[in-house]
């Protein structure tokens, strides 16, 4: 995929007058629409054009800066304001440049626009917007080959592949992009390598729906209440879930049915459901869970794309407290 295909101006050049920034490692550049990208090394920026040396054949192309993605424009802006550190002399002590990155590079450096080794909230949001660009075969899933271009394929699979099929679906990618608050354990509004590594380690022990809530064969029933709505019953078979309201006379109105996935260590994590029938078919409900023995606390939002941050009902969030029914 080439930026030139998007209608951006791309011209071959003789490599001459290369700026002091040249020689940096190639990175993936994306146009503003997110449809086209190219892996190339930065050469220089001049008169509103950025000159890039393509990683595949070494050709140098020119692309208008105003047609690049916001991440790429931010990358260029940071480079244009950074000043090279002066070489130390025998009688002087070198001081680091004010804008120099600190710490280890971010393991997700392909979205670390300022190169400071941490991912800000805006950079993490930009990660969520990269799905369409990475999904080269347009099958609504990112396979290992597509993830290789990020240089962090295994980390992303550990963080987002909830069902363990070595692919990241659009829904799994969306869940990852909405997890900033949960991953930011130091609450400094930035994700560093240690936080991402810790999250990946936890996700490696992820539980599938059938492993945590259902038996190896046959359905399992969970009964309890939704705060403010009364008694309910959930029947779980594998990763299928069916809900009903309960009353003195037995099962009442259907709450719908669908599939669900869980991440975390089987005791605490995310639990998300997708309606597979009824008027809400296709809607994804993001949630968090706490599982202690035979007691499940599940807080889920009925607002597409929003995940609860605490175990509390209200504001579109449903708080369920359920107990596993004895198996007949």
Name some characteristics of this structure.
four-stranded antiparallel beta sheet, 30% strand, elongated, 9 helices, 17 strands, SH3 type barrels, Lipocalin, 328 residues, Recoverin, domain 1, 20% helix
Explain what this protein looks like in three dimensions:
This protein is of the alpha+beta class. The protein has three domains: 3-81, SLA1 homology domain 1 (SH3 type barrels), CATH 2.30.30.700; 109-204, Recoverin, domain 1; 209-324, Beta Barrel (Lipocalin), CATH 2.40.128. Helix content is 20%, strand content 30%. The chain is built from nine helices and 17 strands. The chain has helices spanning 70-81, 121-128, 131-134, 144-147, 153-160, 170-177, 180-183, 193-204, 209-212; strands spanning 27-30, 37-46, 49-54, 60-64, 119-120, 141-142, 168-169, 190-191, 220-226, 230-237, 240-247, 250-262, 268-275, 284-285, 287-292, 295-301, 317-324. The strands form four sheets. It has an eight-stranded antiparallel β-barrel with strand order 9-10-11-12-13-15-16-17. A four-stranded antiparallel β-sheet has the order 1-2-3-4, with helices on one face. A hairpin with a 5-residue loop joins strand 12 (250-262) and strand 13. The chain starts with 26 loop residues before the first strand and ends with a strand. Residues 4-23, 80-102 and 205-211 have low confidence and may be disordered.
């Amino acid at each position: 995929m080439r930026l030139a295909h998007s209608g951006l101006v791309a011209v071959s050049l003789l490599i001459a007058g290369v700026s002091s920034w040249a020689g940096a490692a190639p990175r993936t550049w994306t146009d503003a629409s997110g449809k086209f990208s190219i892996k190339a090394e930065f050469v220089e920026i001049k008169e509103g054009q950025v000159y890039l040396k393509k990683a595949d054949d070494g050709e140098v192309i020119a692309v208008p800066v105003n047609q690049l993605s916001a991440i790429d424009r931010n990358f260029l802006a940071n480079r244009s304001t950074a000043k090279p550190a002066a070489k130390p002399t025998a009688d002087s002590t070198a001081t680091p440049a004010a804008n120099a990155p600190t710490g280890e590079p971010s393991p997700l450096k392909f979205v670390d626009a300022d190169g400071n080794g941490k991912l800000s909230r805006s950079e993490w949001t930009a990660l969520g917007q990269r799905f369409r660009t990475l999904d080269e075969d347009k099958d609504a899933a990112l396979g290992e080959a597509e993830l290789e271009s990020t240089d962090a394929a295994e980390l992303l699979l550990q963080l987002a592949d909830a069902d363990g099929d070595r692919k990241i679906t659009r829904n799994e990618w969306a869940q990852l992009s909405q997890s900033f608050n949960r991953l930011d354990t130091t609450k400094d509004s930035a994700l560093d390598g240690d936080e991402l590594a810790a999250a990946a380690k936890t996700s490696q022990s992820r539980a599938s729906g059938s492993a945590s809530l259902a038996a190896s064969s046959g359905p399992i029933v969970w009964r309890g209440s939704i705060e403010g709505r009364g008694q309910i019953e959930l029947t779980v078979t594998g990763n299928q879930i069916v809900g009903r309201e309960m009353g003195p006379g037995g099962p009442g109105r259907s709450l719908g049915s669908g599939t669900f996935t869980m991440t975390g260590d089987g005791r605490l994590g995310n639990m998300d459901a997708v309606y597979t029938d009824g008027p809400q078919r296709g809607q994804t409900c993001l949630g968090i869970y706490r599982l202690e023995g035979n007691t499940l606390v599940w807080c889920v939002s009925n607002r597409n794309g929003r995940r609860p941050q605490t175990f509390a009902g209200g504001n579109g969030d449903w708080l369920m407290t359920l107990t596993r029914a004895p198996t007949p």
